Amino acid sequence: MKMEVFDQPMCCSSGVCGPKVDKKLVEFSAALAWLREQGVEVQRYNPAQQYEAFVANAKVVQTINEQGTGCLPLLLVDGEIVSRGSYPGKAELATLAGLDPAKAATA
After folding, report:
1. 77: enclosing H helix or E strand
2. What's the rounded Cα separation, in Å, for the pair 65 and 43?
3. What is the structure's pLDDT at 75?
4. ∠ CA 50-55-60 to the nearest 5 degrees?
5. Domain map (residue ranges) of the chain
């Protein structure tokens, strides 16, 4: 299982920096760390730092061309787009990764 996150442009790789930290990004970063602990391969790309990853993925390029950058973040699981335009919570990420969402609630 591989989950890829194609983020909106941010100042750093996680978006958890600067004087005004977005709580949703903090929770999302923690949820991704939890997924990694569960054995899910997680890759996260920021266009400001990993532009090549964006242009190398035809589905990402097509989606951005058709919908604009408002579709970001894009989440792909095993190469298929499973979420767009928002950061899912931990339980939803667990479901997208094929894990029991109840397990996410207790962790």
Report:
1. strand 74-77
2. 22
3. 97
4. 100
5. 2-106
- pLDDT score, position 99: 92
Tell me the pLDDT tens digit for each residue of 29-71.
999 999 999 999 999 999 988 999 999 999 999 999 999 999 9
Sheet of 80-84, strands arranged across: 41-45, 2-6, 74-77, 80-84
Q: Report CA 57 to chain centroid distance, whole Å.
A: 15
The closest alpha carbon to 73, from 101, 95, 53, 103, belongs to 53
**What is the Cβ-side half-sphere exposure of residue 81, based on CA atoms within 13 angstroms?**
17
CATH number assigned to the domain covering 2-106: 3.40.30.10
Q: What are phi and psi of 89, to 5 degrees?
A: -75, 175
